[in-house]
Amino acid sequence: MNFNGFTEQDFNVFKIQGLDARMEAIQNQIRPKLEKLGEHFAPTLSAATGDEMFYHTAKHARRTVNPPDDTWVAFANSKRGYKKLPHFQIGLFEDHLFVWFAVIYESPVKKDFARILTEHQDEVLKQIPKDYVWSVDHTKPEAIPHSEVDHEKFSKMTTRLKDIKKAELLCGIHIPKNDEILQDGKALLAKMDQTFHTLTTLYNYASKVHASE
Q1: Tens digits of residue pLDDT in 162-186
Q2: What distance in Å separates the CA atoms of residue 134 and residue 64, rounded to the nearest whole number?
Q3: Cα–Cα distance for residue pair 171/196, rounded to 1 Å
Q4: Cα-flanking dihedrals φ and ψ of residue 74, to 5°?
Q5: For residue 148, what is the DSSP state?
Q6: Which helix (H) or strand (E) holds 34?
């Protein structure tokens, strides 16, 4: 695939004031790139997970006043949607690109996924690279470095995922907008591919929930 990566102008879209103006820039400037990534990685993730994966580009259709602070393409094993399913994401906030595995608040597998993560805590903490990050809210740009996640902090995140209705858990990478790899399409695709390969471990844990239902 011929992919040129992301530029400073792509990230500057999130500085545009007003819903209509920012949405127009997202649609014209960023969404075509996310569509390309969706087409590229859906077969890759299908092969990695053993599930047929479909991509869903964010439409932000429910927004009527506030412009979106981020945008993304998500991958899940359903044509109909992704929010209730364990899924993968590639997207942008104003200051970084993210590549995630995510179980968000709408997913009915949250409690069982939290239980499985607790059972495999030692393996997860070893398998996730130190330069990865965790998030407990997909709407916020902040993240927790994996290097700072010990058994106690991990236990707090999984307990929260199990007990709190709106709780979420995401794991992956942040690439700052000034990182040169973002403008090297070939290197960026390789980095994303490597990241998805690592995160497939978490997807497989989540798949055990489905298998046991």
Answers
A1: 999 899 999 999 999 999 999 999 9
A2: 30
A3: 11
A4: -115, 155
A5: G
A6: helix 31-49
Tokens of 171: 């794991």
Half-sphere exposure for 168 (CA within 13 Å, toward CB): 23
Question: What strand order describes the sheet that includes 169-176?
Answer: 54-57, 71-76, 87-92, 96-103, 169-176, 133-135, 144-145
Q: Which residue has the tokens 């994996």?
A: 146
pLDDT, tens digit (0-9, with 9 covering 90-100), for 44-68: 999 999 999 999 999 987 777 889 9
Distance between CA atoms of residues 145 and 151, nearest Å: 14
At position 211, the amino acid (one-letter code) is A
DSSP string, 161-199: HHH-TT--EEEEEEEETT-GGGG-HHHHHHHHHHHHHHH
Of 149, 133, 120, which is closest to residue 209 (Cα–Cα)? Answer: 120
Query: Could you tell me the domains of the chain?
Result: 8-212 (3.30.930.20)
